[in-house]
Design goal:
The structure holds 7 protein chains of 7 kinds. Helices cover 62% and strands 0% of the residues of chain B. Chain B has helices at residues 2-20, 25-45, 72-103. In chain B, helix 2 (25-45) packs antiparallel against helix 3 (72-103). Chain F has 156 residues and is mainly alpha-helical. Chain F has 6 helices and no strands. The radius of gyration of chain F is 21 Å and the shape is elongated. Classes of the chains: A mainly alpha (118), B mainly alpha (117), C mainly alpha (89), D mainly alpha (168), E mainly alpha (809), F mainly alpha (156), G mainly alpha (505). Chains A and D meet through helix 1, helix 2 and helix 3 of A and helix 1, helix 5, strand 1, helix 6 and strand 2 of D. The structure holds sodium ion (NA) (2 copies).
């Protein structure tokens, strides 16, 4: 194995590790809001790791490196938005947080008619 | 893998047909979706074998796509079929929605007025 | 198969299993947003798997699918999340 | 806007992988057409060349430097956050005490709020839930709430400050 | 001339419409020139035909089907053409008086003329298919004539009944004729007749003959199809007189006579015709005595006589052909007259009921005189032509060609029908013209207009004068007709007073005598219980059949076309399975070896297996959104497989479409109730599961069989090789899409485009009852649903119409 | 009122990027994965993201294109280049290529123009569909029917 | 190379697209619609003559040699269908001027008609199996749009079933095409015929043919796949019903003739008994349904089903004579069926209802309409010498020649029941007294009468000119079965295997 390959493998390993963590989180965590943590954070870092690994592997081809960077940026920008959207949708559709979620400063802040948040 | 994917095609068809035999319009649509997935995957099996990681692109050095690359024709056909079924499915969705609205029910068995004797 | 490829293959297998876990959540729910979270994560898995597949096979052409898949994963998640809200009854 | 156009041209050149002068021109033209098309999603008033060429940033290099520093900070935070996450998830017994906390906002620009929200989501233990309609409060879900007040303080101090620097 | 006569008649049909503008008697005289001309033309041919000539004429039409406009005139045809055109002339005159003032008279003349043309064509045709064409046209024109007074339900019913029965028989006839022609190797009648020997030996003989019988029996109102004829009496009397007594109903007899030389003298022919004819004859004779309606009485008597004719056609023996021909002529003469007179009575007295008529001999003396004479002819009283014909019948019956035992039965039947014939003739005359004045008649009944009596007068005169010295001439005229029926030199000899006291004469006199005696008991006979069981009533069976059919059809259709999509889908799936499964199982797996699973990578396996998992999740989802998300996983996994198996374009398209479809689905269906209702029972689910499983298994099987059974090299190799050199592109798939098979792609975008048009119209064009906001006006959002402006833009702009098309500008 | 600042900001940012990506897919589709369909669908996705974030009314306002007309123009554009072959007495859709490749774009010929027609049609159709569907609940608010509780699965 | 074959496709397509853009200018849209349809009619007539004179016309889309590119092939059958389609569309457009309201016109009524014309014409011209699939989808989706245009509840309910069941048929078609490509490796019909003729005995191909049987059978409305038809055909505009009633199921029959007559010849022989059974059942079930109905258009809709059975019989007899009769019957039925829908529809349009029990008195009120109806319905039933007779006679002759007694018996019997249910309409709508005073009812103007009159005239002309019509049908049937000359015409003298991918031959 060339050093490049080793590096690739290592970084990819890290990425895969975090993706696995997010999967496990998704399975193990008790309520939706905590699962969003797992998906939104670990999943993002994991995929970034994998992409980075590929970027390093193809480091000689700048086009690919750039594409990988573009993708990483894309995930950085979009993953949190998705998490936010999901949490919000869940909250609005009445998905209950796990029992000892305290404080819950959002409770009752949505106007039931207009969905305006005060 | 051909065998496995054939079985997958079978499940897609079975699931699709089962859903289409339900009474809910949404299930009907999803049934159609599965059915067209099944058809596309079935077509995919009809190419020159399942070939991993050898897409039909001309290799710059050779000037031709490798003869053992995946079947480009079947891909073009599936692509056409996918797009067509997208158009048709969207039509069905809109129609089902409107029918649902007109009948005020998503129960297909409530939509029998045009056959009533 | 080189050691590198074997390593990647193992990682891909791990990813596949992890994918199974995400699918489990998709099936299990219980709420719709739960399923969407799982959906989002499944797309991430697919992006990862394809990336690794390209790394092992060197078939760079396939890499271009990643951008579109990512965009669509985002679009799909956001759309579903948004429309769940519309549909609450 | 011209910056964005340049950015798009750069993106074009990078993804096509061809960097001749013609490619730059094509990238610029495409970028221009796209910006012209999506102009109204950025500005209320119709497209004008003056508005297009207007530069907002005085010192682009400084801005770029700040952004890079910000990204670096963010990246470190993210890695930290994920290690914490992995610990929590992989622990034999789940120990989480979640809570939802409201954080008053100073940032007012769209970009600022968004950046802050994203940063919060990507960093340890917190996910942005929503922004109030009057854009004065940020609601976050936290993984293991200690003292809500401390969380508020820390967030404002570590994150919002940096965001305010870039996008007021 | 033959062709001309037929075509001119058809071409002249619209002339009848003149009567619409002049619905007065003179028009009848004018229009009658047409049949008169035809009569003259045919009469002019008589000498030649009598001399043994035979005229033929043919023009090709649809040669490939054997249809040829081939006409030929021989003795039999001549007899019929003279009857058709001669009686036609009288009817044309009569009609104008009968329908005077009726605005529909024009229509009536058109139908009448078409009928005449059809009838002429029928009897002249020398091609079975041409004959059939005219045969059907007589049914159709008869339908229109019977339904002339279509405001009345009875008229519609009578018309429909006649048409259904005759067309039904006609279909059988058609098949029979085609079979016959197949057996004979020709569609030309004269050639078919020439092939008699060969035909009788053919295996097609029996089916062909039975089918032809069916056609003839329905047309000629033979038992058990006789019931339509009395109902056809709903027609205006001119039509009844013309079609239902003198001409059309004899078409079946004509055809039997025509085919007689070729097909007769087999047991099938003899027994069928004898029994059907005899039964019809008796039933008609009996029932005629039970009718109160004079047209009904005449109709049944016609049935009886038609039965006699069929009997004569079937029974064989040396005298039968002559008797048949004589009967045809005699019947046409007296029955045509009687019908017209009955019409005159109806016209003047306002009723046709025997019980309401009476004593008209003083009020309508001329009518009475003619009716009495014709009735005497009908009864077979000597010195009238009816007597001559009856003598012939009895001669034929005595000397019939039937086996011992049966011959006696037939003889008795003929005599019996003669007895009843006397009886109903007497009923008619005494009931209408004698006794006290009828109770149900109009106030001031007077003689019918002279024009209305012209026809009856001519026909009655013929009945009277033919026996008075014209018998040899008549015989000479009829001889060629007999020759056409019986080719072996049978001679017809008509005579009024036989040279010796023969058995037929005795029987004839006896029948008259018994009949005369029975007139004493007429009321008892009319009131006697029906000889047939009550249910055995053609009318009633017809109605029951129609109603039963309608009800059966309704409940059948309700069950089958039940409006449920899932039931239709079930049929479709089962049809697919039924068509594909057997050959697949039997031949589809020939020579396949079980595949090697070693090359399957674990991670592909996992991805592939996630598809069924997604399917299952979709099936088991208990909410719409859950199902939608589950199904979108299926799409994503398929796209992933596409990536792995070297189809990046496919994967991209699949994913894009999948996502967009999901978004669209959510846009439309997220707002509806979220949960699925439980609508089907467990047994239904199990059944559907079984069907779906079977279909799925079949699809898996066929996919695998085809994928492992590629017998030919695919043409795609050429695309791989020539993509760059000829298509100037490296993405072979895209080159196929835009160039090699760009035509497909063109169609594909058109599909999208049309789908857009359709969806747009469907969503925006609402029926006017619904609140309508059509067209492209951008909607004004209610505050609760949609964010119109991004917050940072502050003030809300005035709504623009989104239809501002820069494209058009 | 749906007004997530976060989503809207990101959606706005994505619009030019996705449009650029779609042009990229269109332009190099003849040689690499992509093409008129994929490009068109991507562009439509860009617009659909705006619809999701801002609602159809806003999108109609900021992108004042008659998409249905665009689809029709796309069809005409795709169909019309084939006529060159026909008027020169050859087959419809016969390809005509410029001798030399255009720098930065590649070889230009009628199939490429055809692909642009496909691109325009797909954008027009898909975006118009999304707009029409998204406007549906605004134009025709649904009358809700009560569904008896015991017949509904207790989910969501 | 007959490049002109593209014209009847491009003209409607471009016209439809332009008409879409200027849809608000009603007058111009109508002009465009009529002009394009007239062009197709004229072209079709010319093609009819040309083919009779010089045989098959062949061209290649984009010039690529067959079997690599997409072949367009016009033979006698194509030409007959092409010309009838244009005629029908033209007549329907004329009828629409009088009956279709302005709102529908604004929602792309005429463009959709033109696109339907485009789709049908393409289906009749293509010589490529997958391309046929595309054309099927085009005409299907155009028909979807037309059948739901107006958005009444009935249209939506019926339309949903129409659409879904047809989509199932489409999927069967797609699967069949895919499987066939897998087995035979090509899509060009000539090439397929060439290759499949080397497989003589029963094989997987027989199973694959089953998919096509179901696919085309469901478009054609064969039992038990016809359910979509009676449920939806009475719901849209009368003009649309008339066009669909005449045309759409026959596209399915056309495809059956084409694909089974050319590509699946040995499978056809194998499946013939099944096809005959299906044909008989279709005739019977259709006519039973018609007897049960009490609405003009619904009766006629079931008749479509019943008569499709006759056309299937023409195929199931597996002989040139059978197919000749089938083609003749189809041509007759296309014309007459549309005429009947137009006339019955005119009565419906005037009365405001299609329910028999609420109609009446039309014979006195509108004698011209009554006359047309009488002629058309007798033509449908097969009363000589109107067109239907020759088709029926041809089928009977061909059936007897093949000694298929049963199907002949069924065919003959069913036509009696057809007569019965046609009489029902005649009695209830035309002969029976009106239930109310009709003097306030609008009169049938030229706009309502002329289109039907044209078709009735065509039907009569086809009856009188039965000889040339039959001759042409025979030519068409022979061409369908003659694969050897097809291969020669499409791929050249050396057959399709010898061709290399290039522009032109
Ligand atoms: Na009625
Ligand atoms: Na009526």
């Amino acid at each position: 194995m060339t050093p490049l390959e080793i590096l690739t493998l290592l970084i990819t390993l890290v990425g895969v590790f975090f993706i696995v963590v997010s999967s496990i989180g998704l399975v193990r965590l008790p309520d939706l809001y905590t699962r969003v943590h797992a998906g939104g954070k670990s999943g993002t870092l994991g995929i970034i790791g994998v992409l980075l690994g590929a970027g390093i592997f193809f480091i000689s081809d700048l086009r690919i490196v750039f594409k990988m960077l573009l993708l990483i940026a894309f995930f950085f920008i979009t993953a949190p938005v998705a998490a936010h959207m999901l949490d919000r949708a869940a909250f609005l559709t009445g998905v209950k947080p796990m029992e000892d979620t305290t404080p819950n400063e959002l409770a009752g802040r949505y106007d039931p008619e207009t969905r305006q948040l005060s | 893998m051909t065998l496995i994917l054939s079985l997958v095609v079978g499940t897609l068809f079975a699931g699709g047909i089962y859903l289409m035999l339900r009474r809910s319009v949404v299930k009907l649509i999803l049934g159609l979706v599965l059915l067209s997935h099944g058809a596309n995957l079935l077509l995919f099996l009809m190419g020159d074998g399942l070939i991993k990681a050898r897409p039909p692109f001309v290799k710059p050095e050779a000037g031709v796509a490798p003869p053992d690359s995946a079947d480009p024709l079947i891909q073009a056909l599936i692509l056409t079929a996918i797009v067509i079924s997208f158009g048709l499915l969207t039509f069905v969705m809109a129609l089902a929605y409107r029918a649902d609205q007109a009948v005020e029910s998503d129960d297909l068995d409530a939509m029998t007025s045009t056959d009533r004797l | 198969m080189s050691a590198f490829q074997s390593g990647m293959a193992i990682l891909m297998l791990v990813m596949s299993l992890s994918l199974g876990a995400a699918v489990w959540r998709l099936l299990r729910g219980p709420s719709i947003p739960d399923r969407v979270v799982a959906f989002d994560l499944i797309i991430i898995h697919l992006v990862g798997l394809i990336t690794m597949f390209v790394v092992t096979t060197g078939e760079l052409v396939l890499l271009d699918t990643l951008i579109v898949i990512s965009v669509l994963g985002f679009l799909g998640t956001v759309a579903i999340a948004r429309l769940i809200e519309e549909g609450r009854s | 806007m011209i910056w964005l156009n340049l950015l798009l041209a750069l993106t074009w050149v990078m993804i096509t992988g061809a960097s001749g002068i013609v490619d730059w021109i094509i990238g610029l033209v495409f970028g221009f057409v796209i910006l012209w098309l999506s102009w109204r999603s950025f500005f209320d008033e119709p497209f004008t060349l003056r508005r297009y060429l207007q530069l907002r940033t005085r010192n682009p290099l400084l801005t770029i430097w700040r952004w890079l520093r910000f990204i670096g900070f963010g990246f470190v935070e993210i890695v930290k956050s994920n290690i914490a996450m992995a610990r929590a998830v992989l622990a034999p017994k789940l120990q989480i005490k979640p809570g939802i906390v409201a954080i008053p906002l100073d940032v007012q620009s769209d970009a600022g709020i968004t950046t802050l929200a994203n940063l919060i989501t990507l960093t340890p233990g917190t996910v942005t839930l929503d922004v109030s309609s009057d854009r004065k409060t940020l609601y976050i879900h936290t993984f293991s709430v200690g003292d809500p007040e401390q969380l508020r303080r820390r967030t404002k101090a570590e994150f919002e400050r940096r965001v305010l620097e870039l996008l007021p | 001339m033959l062709l001309t006569s037929v075509l001119v008649t058809f071409a002249a049909a619209p002339l009848g419409l003149l009567a619409r503008y002049l619905p007065r008697p003179p028009i009848g005289w004018i229009l009658a020139l047409l049949p008169l001309a035809a009569f003259a033309a045919f009469a002019a041919q008589a000498p030649a035909i009598i001399a043994g000539e035979r005229m033929s004429q043919a023009i090709p039409w649809v040669a490939a089907m054997g249809i040829e406009l081939r006409f030929s005139l021989d003795g039999l045809s001549l007899l019929f053409t003279l009857l058709v055109s001669g009686i036609g002339t009288l009817i044309f005159i009569y009609t104008a008086y009968y329908l005077a003032g009726d605005p529909g008279m024009g229509r009536f003349y058109v139908y009448l003329t078409v009928f005449m043309g059809s009838m002429l064509g029928l009897v002249l045709a020398d091609n079975v298919l041409t004959l059939f064409i005219f045969w059907e046209l007589t049914s159709v024109s008869s339908y229109l004539l019977v339904g002339y007074k279509h405001d009345y339900a009875d008229a519609r019913r009578g018309a429909q009944m006649g048409l259904l029965v005759t067309v039904g028989g006609g279909l059988a006839l058609l098949v029979g004729l085609v079979l016959l022609s197949t057996a004979a190797g020709s569609y030309t009648i004269s050639e078919i007749i020439a092939a008699g020997e060969q035909l009788r030996a053919s295996s097609l003989y029996t089916p062909a003959l039975l089918l032809i019988f069916l056609g003839c029996f329905t047309k000629s109102a033979q038992f058990p199809f006789h019931f339509w004829l009395p109902n056809a009496m709903q027609a205006p009397t001119p039509a009844s007189a013309y079609l239902h007594s003198a001409t059309m109903v004899k078409a079946g007899v004509y055809l039997l006579a025509r085919l007689h030389p070729a097909l007769s003298e087999t047991p099938l022919w003899i027994y069928t015709l004898t029994s059907v004819g005899a039964i019809t004859m008796l039933i008609g004779a009996v029932v005629a005595n039970r009718r109160d309606d004079i047209k009904g009485l005449l109709a049944y008597s016609t049935i009886s006589k038609l039965g006699t004719m069929v009997l004569l056609a079937g029974m064989g023996g040396p005298e039968a052909p002559a008797a048949l021909v004589a009967t045809i002529l005699a019947h046409a003469l007296y029955k045509g007259a009687l019908f017209m007179l009955a019409g005159a009575v109806d016209h003047e007295a306002g009723t046709r009921s025997l019980s309401q008529l009476g004593g008209l001999r003083r009020l309508m003396p001329w009518t009475a005189a003619l009716a009495i004479l014709s009735s005497l002819s009908m009864a077979g009283v000597p010195i009238l032509f009816g007597f001559v014909a009856k003598e012939e019948q009895l001669y034929a019956a005595v000397d019939n060609g039937l086996p011992a035992g049966l011959d006696i039965v037939v003889l008795i039947a003929v005599v019996t029908s003669a007895v009843f014939g006397v009886l109903y003739a007497w009923r008619l005359v005494s009931g209408v013209f004698f006794g006290p004045l009828g109770s149900g008649m109009k106030a001031h009944v007077h003689e019918a207009p002279a024009g209305m009596l012209v026809g009856p007068a001519v026909l009655t005169t013929l009945s009277v004068i033919l026996p008075l010295g014209l018998l040899p001439a008549t015989a000479a005229l009829l001889q060629p007709a007999v020759n056409a029926i019986a080719d072996d030199g049978v001679k017809i000899s008509l005579y009024l007073i036989p040279s010796e006291l023969s058995l037929p004469l005795i029987l004839s006199m006896t029948a008259l005598l018994i009949g005369a005696v029975l007139t004493r008991f007429e009321p008892q006979i009319a009131a006697a219980p029906s000889p047939l069981p009550l249910w055995f009533n053609g009318d009633r069976i017809y109605d029951a059949a129609i109603n039963g059919m309608l009800q059966g059809a309704t409940s059948f259709t309700r069950t089958l076309q039940n409006g449920k999509l899932r039931s239709y889908m079930t049929w479709a799936v089962l049809a697919l399975v039924a068509v594909v499964m057997p050959p697949l199982v039997l031949f589809g797996f020939n020579g396949l070896v079980l595949p090697n699973l070693a090359g399957v990578g674990p991670f592909e396996l996992v991805s592939a297996l996630l598809i069924p998992v997604g399917v299952l999740a979709t099936l088991r989802a208990r909410s719409r959104l859950g199902a939608i998300i589950a199904s979108s996983i299926v799409g994503a996994m398929i796209a992933f497989l596409f990536v792995i198996y070297s189809a990046p374009d496919l994967a991209l398209t699949q994913l894009l479409i999948e996502t967009l479809a999901t978004v669209f689905l959510m846009l439309l269906f997220a707002v509806l109730p979220v949960g699925f209702e439980r609508l089907t029972s467990d047994s239904e689910r199990a059944r559907d599961g079984l069907i779906a499983g079977l279909a799925g298994l079949m699809m898996a099987g066929v996919a695998f069989a085809a994928a492992s059974n590629m017998q030919f090299a695919s043409i795609s190799q050429a695309f791989r090789a020539e993509s760059r050199s000829q298509g100037f592109g490296d993405n072979v798939v895209n080159v196929i899409l835009v160039d090699f098979r760009g035509f497909d792609t063109m169609g594909e975008i058109v599909v999208l485009f049309i789908a857009l048009l359709g969806i747009y119209a469907m969503l925006r064009l609402r029926p006017s009852v619904e609140p309508t906001r059509d067209d492209e006006e951008a909607p004004t959002p209610p505050a609760s649903l949609d964010g119109a402006t991004p917050p940072e833009h502050g003030q809300q702009e005035q709504q623009e119409t989104a239809s501002e098309p820069w494209l058009k500008a | 009122m749906y007004d997530s600042i976060i989503l809207r900001t990101v959606a706005r940012l994505m619009l030019p990027i996705l449009l650029l990506l779609s042009l990229f897919m269109l332009v190099r589709g003849h040689n690499l994965p992509g093409g008129g369909f994929i490009g068109g669908l991507l562009a439509a996705s860009a617009f659909i993201l705006q619809i999701i974030a801002y609602g159809p009314v806003h999108v109609r306002r900021i992108i004042p294109v008659n998409f249905l007309g665009l689809a029709a123009v796309g069809v005409i554009f795709a169909a019309v280049w084939g006529l060159i072959g026909l008027v020169t007495g050859q087959a419809y859709m016969l390809a005509f290529w410029l001798k030399e490749p255009i720098p930065g774009i590649g070889k230009l010929g009628t199939p490429v123009l055809f692909d642009i027609g496909v691109y325009l049609t797909v954008i027009g159709v898909t975006t118009q569909l999304a707009l029409v569907l998204a406007e549906e609940p605004i134009l025709y608010p649904l009358r809700r029917r009560p569904v008896s509780a015991d017949r509904v699965a207790p989910e969501a | 190379m007959a490049h002109h074959l593209f014209l009847p496709l491009i003209v409607p397509l471009l016209s439809a697209s332009v008409a879409t853009i200027i849809v608000r200018q009603h007058g111009w849209v109508r002009v465009i619609a009529v002009a394009a349809t007239l062009f197709n009619l004229g072209y079709g007539a010319w093609l009819l003559v040309t083919i009779a004179a010089t045989g098959r016309q062949v061209t290649q889309a984009a010039g690529w040699s067959a079997p690599f590119g997409i072949t367009l092939v016009a033979d006698g059958l194509s030409a007959i269908m092409l010309v009838l389609t244009a005629l029908l569309t033209l007549v329907t457009i004329g009828y629409s001027f009088a009956t279709v309201d302005a709102r529908q016109e604004r929602f792309y009524y005429y463009p959709l008609l033109l696109l339907l014309l485009f789709g049908c014409s393409g289906a009749f011209l293509t010589g490529d199996l997958f391309n046929l699939y595309v054309w099927f989808e085009i005409l299907l989706v155009a028909s979807f749009g037309l059948i739901t245009l107006g958005g009444s509840r009935g249209q939506l309910e019926g339309g949903l079933k129409y659409v879904v069941l047809n989509l199932f048929g489409s999927i069967c078609f797609l699967v069949g095409a895919g499987l066939l490509y897998g087995v035979a490796g090509t899509l060009n019909m000539a090439h397929l015929a060439e290759r499949l003729s080397t497989i003589q005995d029963a094989s997987l191909v027989t199973a694959v043919a089953g998919f096509f049987l179901v696919a085309f059978g469901s478009k054609a409305g064969l039992a038990p796949l016809f359910f979509w038809l009676p449920t939806s055909y009475h719901t849209p505009n009368i003009a649309v019903t008339a066009l669909f009633g005449g045309l759409l199921t026959k596209v399915g029959i056309y495809a059956l003739y084409r694909v089974f007559g050319t590509v699946f010849q040995s499978e056809l022989a194998r499946l013939a008994p099944l096809i005959l059974v299906v044909a008989g059942v279709t005739m019977v079930v259709g006519v039973i349904g018609a007897m049960a109905q009490v609405n003009v258009r619904r009766i006629l809709a079931f008749h479509i089903v019943s008569q499709v059975g006759y056309m299937a019989m023409g195929l199931g007899l597996v002989s040139v004579a059978g197919m000749t009769a089938g083609i003749l019957f189809m041509a007759h039925n296309i014309v007459v069926k549309t005429a009947l829908f137009l006339i019955g529809g005119a009565a419906e349009h005037l009365t405001g209802t299609g329910e028999l029990k609420q109609m009446g008195g039309m014979a006195r009120r509108e004698p011209m309409l009554a006359l047309l109806w009488l002629l058309a319905s007798f033509a449908l039933v097969g009363v000589p010498p109107l067109t239907g007779f020759f088709g029926k006679l041809g089928l009977i002759q061909a059936g007897l020649a093949q000694e298929q007694w049963l199907i002949v018996g069924v065919a003959a019997t069913v036509s009696l029941f057809t007569l019965f249910s046609m009489l029902k309409i005649w009695n209830e709508v035309f002969w029976k007294k009106a239930y109310s005073d009709l003097s306030a009812m609008p009169r049938a103007g030229v706009g309502l009468l002329a289109p039907a009159a044209v078709l009735v005239a065509v039907s009569i002309a086809m009856g009188i000119g039965a000889a040339p019509t039959l001759e042409y049908s025979a030519l068409a049937a022979e061409q369908v079965f003659d694969t050897a000359s097809l291969v020669r015409d499409v791929c050249g003298p050396n057959g399709c295997e010898a061709v290399e991918l290039a522009v032109g031959h």
